[in-house]
Amino acid sequence: MQHLTRRRLLGHALASAALLPGTADAAQPITHRVQIAGMGFHPPRLHLAPGDRVIFTNADAARHSATADSGLFDSGPIGAEQSAQITCARPGIHTYFCATNPHMTGTLIIG
């Protein structure tokens, strides 16, 4: 039979706590970048975790936006060399477009 010392007992408790949700093992939000250039979103499809952020940066001379088809998010107008940030919380597949140029489309896959 194994003798449990205080050190071993503490080690077991810490190892068990690391497996609990909301502890140090929980993933931190990540910031993703989408460049708007050449009248398109690059990358056009992005995989994220709930709580991640997306920064849209406009490299075109024209104003653009990142507007969800569902109304979940809308960056508003993004001028040349400007950026806008959104936080993605709701899991699912979220398509978006540019309100100024609706042929420009992208997809955020959150899950």
Description:
There is one protein chain. The protein is about 10% helix and about 35% strand. It is mainly beta and about 110 residues long. The protein has one domain: Sandwich (Immunoglobulin-like), CATH 2.60.40.420. A four-stranded mixed β-sheet has the order 2-1-4-6, with no helix packed on it. The longest helix is centred in the N-terminal third of the chain and has 12 residues, at about 5-15. The protein is globular, with a radius of gyration of 21 Å. The N and C termini lie far apart (about 45 Å).
Show the helix and strand layout.
Layout: H1 6-17, E1 31-37, E2 40-42, E3 45-48, E4 53-58, E5 67-68, E6 83-87, E7 92-97, E8 105-110
Parallel strand pairs: 1-4, 3-8
Antiparallel strand pairs: 1-2, 4-6, 5-7, 7-8
Helical content band: 10-25%
Poorly predicted tracts of residues: 1-7, 9-24
Q: Count of helical segments? A: 1
What is the element string, with H for helices and E for strands?
HEEEEEEEE
Overview in brief:
The longest helix is centred in the first third of the chain and has 12 residues, at 6-17.
